[in-house]
Write a structure and sequence with these properties.
By secondary structure, the chain is α/β, with parallel strands linked by helices. The protein folds into 2 domains: 124 residues, Translation factors (Elongation Factor Tu (Ef-tu), domain 3, Beta Barrel); 118 residues, Nucleotide-binding domain of ferredoxin-NADP reductase (FNR) module (Rossmann fold). Helices cover 18% and strands 32% of the residues. It has 5 helices and 11 strands. The strands form 2 sheets. Strands 1-2-5-4-3-6 form a 6-stranded antiparallel β-barrel. Helix 4 runs parallel beside helix 5. The longest helix is centred in the C-terminal third of the chain and has 15 residues. The two termini are 18 Å apart.
């Protein structure tokens, strides 16, 4: 879905384990995972797939194939009674010297007031709990000259946007529009001096909104087009990513090839695998 990926070819499934759980803000839980001494930090939005047991499963049964299509076909062929949950997450920070990574989980309820399996796992995780880990490489891969970097995302995109801005050259210019549930969910991270970070707190919006990403999309539509070549990276709730891309292409005249976008999730439609 508009994503140019750099997936490593030498990866393996790793059985990691939880070392620490920390509730870092009203909407985020951070798990520190260990056992990843062979992981190569890739910077930017280094992402991975995490596998964790469903209720009633005593052990994790991980795929043995590591190609992008091979592991998934094997996963789908596994009977659901043995198939683990799988979700995609960004590596918030990697410490290769001790084989650790931090993964931030958004804790938000669905329309029925329940929590998804990843949020449930994060809230209940204890040191020693096992997690399958598959390195997915990076997705922020601008391949054209550009004058501006434009980043737009909701809370699910925050770890990726933090990694991307930290990896930009200090001379980079651009705008990052980040929508989070509350002011308490803002995070500090490295930003080039000419990068304008615009935080939006959903709970402070006049009239309120229940759908994540709509305020970020509105903020983008209120932003004047940038003068020069733009590389845009639009991630988060599906309507945000697709709506932002449509606006940039139709209203700003940004070439489609200069826009990377991916809907991490869909509001009101929980993932089933």
């Amino acid at each position: 879905m508009g994503r140019k990926k750099k997936t490593p070819t030498d990866r393996q499934f790793t059985l990691a384990h939880v070392r620490q759980r920390k509730h870092i803000s009203p909407s985020f839980v951070r798990l520190t995972l260990g056992g990843l001494e062979d992981l190569v930090p890739r910077g930017h939005d280094h992402w991975c797939r995490l596998f964790f047991a469903r209720e009633g499963q005593d052990a994790l049964q991980l795929p043995t194939r590591t190609s992008e299509i091979g592991w998934y076909l094997q996963y789908l062929a596994t009977p659901k009674v043995r198939r683990p949950w799988v979700r995609a997450y960004t590596v918030r920070e990697a410490r290769p010297d001790v084989g650790e990574v931090d993964i931030d989980f958004v804790i938000h309820e669905d329309d029925a007031g329940g929590l998804g399996p990843a949020a449930q796992f994060a809230l209940a995780a204890n040191p020693g709990d096992r997690v399958g880990f598959l390195d997915q490489g990076i997705a922020f891969t601008p391949d054209h000259p550009h004058d501006w970097t434009l980043l737009v995302g909701d809370e699910t995109a925050l770890p990726a946007l933090a990694g991307i801005t930290a990896g930009l050259p200090q001379t980079a210019r651009g705008i990052a529009i980040i929508e989070v549930p509350t002011a308490g969910d803002r995070q500090e991270f490295q930003v080039p001096p000419a990068m304008d970070v615009r935080w939006i707190h959903r709970d402070e919006a006049a009239g309120g909104t229940d759908r994540p990403g709509q305020l970020a999309l509105a903020a983008l539509k209120e932003t004047a087009p940038l003068d020069g070549a733009v590389h845009a990276h639009l991630i988060g709730e599906s309507a945000l990513a697709t709506g932002a891309r449509r606006h940039l292409v139709q209203e700003w005249g940004v070439p489609k090839s200069h826009v990377d976008f991916v809907g991490y999730w869909r509001h009101g439609r929980p993932a089933t695998t």
